[in-house]
Amino acid sequence: MKRLSLDLGSGWTVTPGATDALDIMRRDEDGERVEAVARYATGGPLRDAYPVGAHDVEIRISRRDPTSSRLTGFLDELGASILAADRGCRRVVVAVAPDDLAAVTAAESVGFRHVVDVDVPGEELSLLVREPEWVTQVDADLDRVPGA
């Protein structure tokens, strides 16, 4: 499986993790940190949970301060960086526990939208998705037939 490649700039630490994943950490000047694991969804448990695209990227938040206000910025920057790094990416998917309302709220506040709750081996997840504009653009002219 292909490993995701990201260059997130200063303040970020990106290291190869297990099973074609990247371990990502953001530490702020005050020492607070947020950590996540990112990988192409075709290489993880989500591959059987929905119609996964070859370039869909899954993000799992692996560590954060329970009162972290930085999760919102972390998800926003990480989502934008993934879409910039892989122009073929149709979906950045944040997978969180359905009862993790802080993570759901943080993701929704930066443009991720809740799509579905899924069961994968050993856990239930809420999937929140951010898509690039080229995926979500819709031609509002319903009378026009594409290609005609």
Index terms:
Aminopeptidase, 3 helices, seven-stranded mixed beta sheet, 148 residues, alpha+beta, globular
Element layout with pairings:
Blueprint: E1 12-16, E2 22-27, E3 33-40, E4 57-64, H1 71-85, E5 92-96, H2 101-109, E6 113-120, E7 123-130, H3 133-136
Parallel strand pairs: 4-5
Antiparallel strand pairs: 1-2, 2-3, 3-4, 5-7, 6-7
Helix pairs in contact: 1-2
Protein name: Acetyltransferase
Organism: Mycobacterium avium
Description:
The structure is a single chain. Strand 6 and strand 7 (123-130) form a beta hairpin. With 148 residues, the chain is of the alpha+beta class. The model has no long low-confidence stretch (mean pLDDT 85). It contains three helices and seven strands; from the N terminus they run ββββαβαββα. It has one domain (12-136): Aminopeptidase. It starts with 11 loop residues before the first strand and ends in a 12-residue tail after the last helix. It has helices at 71-85, 101-109, 133-136, and strands spanning 12-16, 22-27, 33-40, 57-64, 92-96, 113-120, 123-130. The protein has a seven-stranded mixed β-sheet. The radius of gyration is 16 Å and the shape is globular. It comes from Mycobacterium avium. This is Acetyltransferase.
